[in-house]
Amino acid sequence: xxxxxxxxPILAVDVVVFSVSRGRLRVLLHRRGQDPFSGAPALxxxxxxxxxxxxxxxxxxxxxxAGWPPDAPxxxxxxxxxxxxxxxxxxxxxxxxVAYLGLSPARSAPxxxxxxxxxxxxGRGSLPFDHDRILETALARLRGKLRYTxxxxxxxxxxxxxxxxxxxxxxxxxxSLNRTNFRNKLLKLGLIEQVRALSEAVGKKGGRPPHLYAxxxxxxxxxxxxxx
Amino acid sequence: xxxxxxxxPILAVDVVVFSVSRGRLRVLLHRRGQDPFSGAPALxxxxxxxxxxxxxxxxxxxxxxAGWPPDAPxxxxxxxxxxxxxxxxxxxxxxxxVAYLGLSPARSAPxxxxxxxxxxxxGRGSLPFDHDRILETALARLRGKLRYTxxxxxxxxxxxxxxxxxxxxxxxxxxSLNRTNFRNKLLKLGLIEQVRALSEAVGKKGGRPPHLYAxxxxxxxxxxxxxx
DNA sequence: GCAAAAGTGTTGTGACTACACCCATGG
DNA sequence: CCATGGGTGTAGTCACAACACTTTTGC
Lengths: 228, 228
Known about the structure:
Two copies of one chain form a homodimer. By secondary structure, chain A is of the alpha+beta class.
């Protein structure tokens, strides 16, 4: 019934990796090496091969296209975002792209260089294909999940100070939060718990030494808020 | 391993259409006509063609596989759910499937026959491929969106009584809700608004005639609840 | 009048906001 | 001892669950 041959859409993946450093939300982009849009910054992406999962393809895109360290992708947090269709145009033919959302803690300098500051311009007509829309969707998902999951832990080391966590939230949501209530809310929700007092006050100029906290072990989807 | 030639995954769509009738949540299934799993009930799905969008493919699957009326798919609400990978095995080779979630109001008898009651067994080892997991994901999405969007309107006609709406919520969430508070909450959220008093009391045996309500026009994503 | 269903009001509880205040450290 | 942050307490407001009560119909 169906026409045989190569009359099928090409399946690809694109990856949006966010990171927070120096109080700013940043996104991983690479400069395209081939046409179309050669030289333009874009989300890393590859065509999916028959013998790899979508998530594997996403990690491969980071290594092959963006120069991510070959060992590092393994422990990077990634989740599927959505599948994009229609706007895509490519000389190779019709392409459907499964987008992935990745979150990375601040890392070594060579990796940090891959990230671009998420300024107001980015994501509004500045990226090729439909990457603007993918980026927009990724940011919306990230902001949504901050509210009711422990996903922000992916931006930080195992143990962290509450003020570090608050900076992450403020960078992602792009507005300032009340210090006291931020603290109380996350603690009462059971999202984070105190680990131990900070012994090493690294390069502080004063002030009471903070405690260290960690996100609760389980992948908290924070108790589906009841509807009535 | 894989036959040479088509060294790319096959792209397919599967559709989960829910409906509520007689106080029960139901899902559209069809009996497969070909191997594998010939004769077993399954979600309707087709391979995506180069010249159609994913959503078009999803609507085509309903018409071709499930016998959905050819004119009706146009106004059926559908949204993309997620893309499934890995578990899928098919003689034609590696397949990646983009799942769609559809919501249908109660309709004519021939269409109603396509729906299966969502009993406790369904979705737990009873469907072929990874359709159990797709169904589970669809239900979770539907329940989530009930809480903060006007999506439930897709199950009902333009104007409806509040008790009808409550039955929809109860069927989907699978628990009973407090009549008074259900009413107050949806009204205060601004999700629904009164249209006019009901003139025709169709076959009622008594009681005060209800008002008619409608969902607020816009696709209310109900004001992103602020985080602090 | 009485049952039945729709619609309204009331009260207690708990969450969130916006503060003021106390604590522990470096210089 | 004071500047600098970390940590705790509190009062007002608002949303919400539970439930009693009133309204409007059919019979």
